[in-house]
Amino acid sequence: MPKLRKRRDVPSQRKRKKVQSTDLHNDHSYSMPNEDIVQLCLKEEVEVRGERIDPDFTLYTAEPLEDIECTSLTYQEEVAIDMIEETECVTSSYTDPFDKLKQDVVQSGCISSPYVLDTTSDSIKIMLLYPSAERISVKLNVMINRDFFAKVFVHRIQLSQDHDLWIGLPRVFDSVKHIQTLLMKLQSYSVCTGNFEADLMAFIPVGTPVESAEGSASSQGFREGDFEAVKGTISYSSTVRSMNCLLLVQGNRCSPCTQLRRVLISRKHRREEKERKSKENIPNYLHSTIGHTKMSRTELITKIHQQKDRITTLQSEIDKTQRKFQREVSSKGVTLDFSQTLEMQDTMAACTTEIMKAFPDANSYQRLFWSEQQKSMNVKSLKGMRWHPMILRWCLYLRHKSSAAYEALRDSGFITLPSSRTLFDYSHYTKSDNGFLPDVVKELKNEASKRDMYSTVDPWKNYVGLLFDEIKVKSDLVYDKHSGELIGYCNLDKVGNQIMNFERSMKDTSSTETDADIAKYMLVLMVRGVATDLKFPLAGFATLSITADYLYPIIWKAIRILETGFAQLKVLFLTCDGASANRKFFNIHGQVNEFIHYTTNPYADDERKLYFISDVPHLVKTTRNCFSNSYSHKNTRKMWKDGKDISWMHLLKLFEDHCELSLYSPCPKLTRSHLDMTTYGCMKVNIAAQVLSSTVANALEMMYGDNVTETVNFIRIMNKFFDCLNVRNLYEGRNKRNPDLDPYTTVNDERLQWLRVDFIKYFDSWEQSVMQRAGNFSRKQRKGMQLSHQTLTGFKISVFSIVDCVKFLLESGAKFVLTHHFNQDPLEQHFGHYRHRVGDNNNPTVNDVRHMMTSMRAVGAQALAPKRGNVSNQRDRNFVIDNTSLPKRRTY
After folding, report:
1. What are the transmembrane regions (predicted)?
2. What is d(CA 247, CA 163) in angstroms, rounded to the nearest whole number?
């Protein structure tokens, strides 16, 4: 029924007839009947759908109106009610066009086979069914709503409005003829069959999407349900469609489903190949630890094929990533034209003043980097660019971490960097080889000269220490195309090789001098300054397993080269870990069963002593390991002193009772990884130092009192020992309010006396207490009540040697001594670079180590220690810009 629209307080928009003006005295319209007044009001105020209601009708009132002004509202309400009744009578014959169209479709009988009209639906719904005797299955349906727009659904999926079906059809379907045109055109199309083969759908459940790639959120297709579809002679219960399937085609399959078919077929072939390989039970040799010498010819061929397949797969992934990157650059990249380049140069020139204000220090990396970028913008060609040595070192370090990332950084255009070819000449300035090389010794002297180590005013700067240790390498051979040799055999210098050949001939008479063993370790020697930051890898040797017999000639040759050779440096100490070969090397210089911590240096002009030092961080780790096995973990020790146990269980109880679940933790740094020892955790120095800290000792004493007295005393002794021998800078003791971390400035320092006397006496009294303990204990059981004898011997060697070295340097004129310079942390950090070469490469080859040593000599102090290494990286490093030129490979 049309709505009644009543306008109030709105002036009439109808044209009014022009009325002649009359004299007010002669105007008698006020005397008009009431019925005429109401009719005039209706003409002005009442309107229904734009058509005026005929006001010529009679109004019946109960009483004649006496006062129009007072009763006008009542009359208007009565008029409105009568008007609505009249409107209903007028519009009762109106018919909805959609209902009329639906009635015409039903009565005309235009919907014939194969289409079926659903008469129960509110809309016009026409269906096309599949010929199935078991159940009704809808192929498609056409739905026309009251807005006369048509929608086509194929297998319950709406057909896109961009489909070719709609070309040439009317926009609205408001007649039977238009509907017949749509149905006739639908008969020229058929449903896309998708990919209905069983082998292509074997591993795709109904409703499951087909992922585009591993880890991708998008999908390429999906598997639909069972519609009992039939197309000619083809019948299928389910199929896999593309997400962009056209649904209706004039062939068998749409182009998106054809593309998806290729993907499904390739996945099918890969699955079949994987099943075939699993049935053949061929082992995976890619990560096998079996040496090539122990593999048969068939196994070697199989491994080559597996490596080839792996390389092909990785290459395809790289190509795919490169194509994606190129598409991103081409679509979103911005290329600067000549005018924009000039604007960029002007912008950099204008910002130079701001950079100078922001970084006033001339020894600033940011300021140096800005100036080098500005210089590269002003050169006509980068071939003529002369880079600063510090920029070259930094770029060498970046490329060493990841060559692909470095090239991506260069190609991005954000910053300008040297090419890889330029860096190659600096990283290969000398031949990478085992043993002592003349060019390396010359480079060592240049590094020492930069640090003023040959000063006659401060002769104590000339003292250095020699660090040596082994790193595990892959037992593999690498062919060097430049020299034509196989790299990877043991090489222990001239004397060591002769000893090795002699031992081999004594074990097996059939072996010859040309026979050699494949190396498993790499012995690395490093020179470290005592009063400077010199950390220089001197030489490397490929070994099978180093022993004192091989170590002796190598170490003394290195000392001779440093003392009397071109370097002219004074070797004060040797630092290594507590391996059995290293301890035996120390004992060679003394009598049998004699404690020795130094020997006379025959190459020194002043008959100076050469001190042996067992690395202090290694001693802390071995102490923690012995402590962790006391009543816990391996349970090989039951440490005891003066009637009370020194047990790891005390720490575990403290952690579980007061740290793990408590809001307030007396030991904030103590975590589960500190107590549950793992192979990785046993190698971390900071974890051992945090366990044996004064914070843990104070918490134990506060929570458990006298029950843990000896455990608390033991932890405090070890904490002070590590602090006294780990002084790293001038201000750490002041900043942490710990006098044990202050630098040594006098020979009468009380810490030296405590180390030499009190610390050693503590372990002597511990041993005496264990040996005098009442009870039937065997010698092995009594040894298990204290630390291992290797650790105790290392304590004595390190304490005696470091105390003597500190006093010797102070007496030689040094203003202060930092005991951190006596450990081998730089060598451990150096090994971290080997293992992290282009990713987590835990076992590099001998060839990798050789090239890395050459590269790291060029990088120098720019190399940052790995964050996850055994030794924590120093955050308070003082960077100094080095302007001296780098050695470069000679080109002929």
Report:
1. none
2. 9
Q: Is residue 64 part of a domain?
A: yes
CA proximity to 649, closest of 659, 665, 635:
635
Indicate left, alpha or beta for 493 from its phi (over 0: left) and psi (-120 to 50: alpha): left
Q: Give me the amino acid identity at 201.
A: M
Residue that is written with structure tokens 């190609």 in the block: 411
Question: For 302, phi and psi rounded to 5 degrees?
Answer: -60, -40
Give the span between the Cα atoms of 610 and 881, in whole angstroms.
Answer: 34
Distances (CA, A) of 209 to 1, 217, 218, 243: 51, 11, 9, 9
- Counted residue by residue, the chain has a size of 892
Same domain flag for 470 and 441: yes
- Say if residue 595 is in the same domain as residue 451: yes
Tokens of 635: 């349970």
Supply the range of the domain harboring residue 76.
5-91
| Residue type, position 605, single letter | D
Domain-located, residue 198 = no
Q: Distances from the Cα of 13 to the Cαs of 6, 9, 237, 299, 585, in angstroms?
A: 14, 12, 68, 101, 117
Report the alpha-carbon distance of residue 149 to residue 101 in Å, rounded: 13
Neighbours of 501 (CB within 10 A): 16
Cα–Cα separations (whole angstroms), residue 647 to 1, 636, 652, 699, 713: 95, 12, 9, 15, 12
Please tell me the predicted confidence (pLDDT) of residue 217: 53
Alpha-helical runs (H) found in 729-822: 732-736, 750-753, 760-771, 779-783, 789-811
To which H or E segment does residue 645 belong?
strand 644-645
Residue 486 shares a structural domain with residue 607: yes
**Left if phi > 0, otherwise alpha if psi is -120 to 50, otherwise beta: which for 293?**
alpha
Domain end, chosen from 425, 455, 486, is at 425
Residues 690, 580 share a domain: no
Where does 784-845 have alpha helices with state H?
A: 789-811, 825-835
Q: Which of the 8 DSSP states describes residue 202?
A: T
Beta bridge partner(s), residue 537: 526
Contact present, 467 and 525 (Cβ < 8 Å)? yes
562 Cβ contact partners less than 8 Å away, ≥ 6 residues apart: 464, 466, 527, 538, 569, 570, 571
Amino acid, res. 291: G
Contact present, 811 and 608 (Cβ < 8 Å): no
Residue 58 sits at φ, ψ, to 5 deg, of -95, 130
Residue 114: asked if its preceding bond is cis (omega within 30°), the reply is yes
Burial state string for 658-687 with b = 16 or more CB within 10 A and e = fewer than 16: bbeeeeeebbeebeeebbebeeeeeebbeb
Question: 636 in a domain, yes or no?
Answer: yes
Burial class (CB in 10 A: 0-12, 13-18, 19+), 425: middle
d(C-alpha 354, C-alpha 343), whole Å = 17
Count of other CB atoms within 10 angstroms of residue 332: 7
CA distance 831 to 861: 15
CA distance 399 to 710: 52
Strand 209-211 vs strand 598-600: parallel, antiparallel, or unpaired? unpaired
* Residue 807 burial class via C-beta count within 10 angstroms: exposed 0-12, middle 13-18, buried 19 and up: middle
Residue 655 CA, chain-centre distance (Å), reads 32
Taking CA atoms, 463 is separated from 16, 537, 667, 804, in Å, by: 118, 16, 41, 14
Report the C-alpha gap between 386 and 391 in whole angstroms.
10
What is the block-wise mean pLDDT of the chain (892 residues), using blocks of 10 residues? Answer: 46 43 42 45 42 41 41 47 50 72 82 83 87 78 90 91 90 88 89 89 81 63 86 86 91 90 88 78 79 86 88 88 82 68 69 75 76 78 80 82 82 82 79 86 90 89 94 83 79 76 66 64 93 91 88 94 90 94 92 88 90 95 95 93 94 91 87 88 89 94 93 96 94 93 95 96 95 92 94 96 96 94 90 70 78 78 56 55 70 51
Residue 53 has, within 13 A of its CA and on its CB side, a CA count of 28
